[in-house]
Specification:
The structure is a single chain. This protein has 216 residues and is of the alpha+beta class. A hairpin with a 2-residue loop joins strand 1 (41-44) and strand 2. Helix content is 22%, strand content 40%. A five-stranded antiparallel β-sheet has the order 7-9-5-3-12, with no helix packed on it. The chain has four helices and twelve strands; from the N terminus they run H-H-H-E-E-H-E-E-E-E-E-E-E-E-E-E.
């Protein structure tokens, strides 16, 4: 979407972005929300345009694309592969008591394209109103099955006050895992019990990611 808006050189409607970037309405909606949250895209009069930061990010993407094309001898870039990041946790937590969160990536669904090789992603996490056991961790996404989930703990600070958790995902886009590309982010709220009990029922939240096939 950043590439399309940069090339378009003007504000565009969501329908124009869908057609020009060849994305579904669902993916465009998700991309718009993320980019607006990151202040890379601004909205005015039913149209979307790059902010100054968005222009810089788009230019960096184009420079990266040019460098990758030169490195690969001009070979066409493989299409992105959709996968879903999922977080499973208790529905309600107890204040000042650690609870386990499991973060993984779902297996590909039927008829979904497969990665040419496993993808490596880094996740950065933070919590407002609670403490996490990790601030950053990595997952390896297999070609044809689910990723082994990572476990971290979340300790709420106060009864009756929900904890807001934020997760941002980045993919290593070179063989040496020295360069990373943002895959997007999400946040969700976790309820904290008022009566010092913890609900044993589980809930799952997630976000779609478009993984870049990496050639080695």
């Amino acid at each position: 979407m950043l590439r399309f808006l940069h090339k378009h050189r003007a504000a565009a409607t969501s329908a124009e972005i869908q057609e020009g970037a060849q994305l579904s309405a669902r993916l465009v909606g998700r991309a718009i929300r993320r980019l607006v949250n990151f202040r890379l895209v601004q909205f005015h009069s039913d149209r979307y345009a790059l902010t100054s930061d968005g222009q810089i990010a788009a230019q960096q993407l184009l420079e990266y694309d040019a460098a990758l094309a030169a490195k690969s001898g001009g070979r066409a870039e493989l299409p992105r592969v959709p996968r879903r990041l999922t977080v499973v946790m208790p529905r309600v937590l107890r204040a000042n008591t650690p609870a386990d969160l499991f973060v993984g990536v779902n297996p590909p669904t039927a008829n979904m394209p497969l990665l040419p090789q496993p993808a490596h992603i880094t996740l950065r996490v933070s919590a407002l109103g609670g403490t996490l056991s990790l601030a950053e961790f990595a997952l390896e996404v297999p070609v044809d099955k689910a990723a082994v989930p990572a476990k971290l703990s979340l300790t709420p600070d106060q009864a009756g006050r929900a904890v807001r958790v934020r997760i941002d995902a980045f993919q290593a886009v070179d063989a040496d895992q020295l360069q990373f590309e943002p895959l997007g982010g999400m946040y969700f709220d976790v309820r904290v019990s008022m009566d010092a009990t913890q609900d044993s029922a589980l809930r799952a939240v997630g976000m779609d990611m478009l993984l870049k096939p990496i050639r080695i």
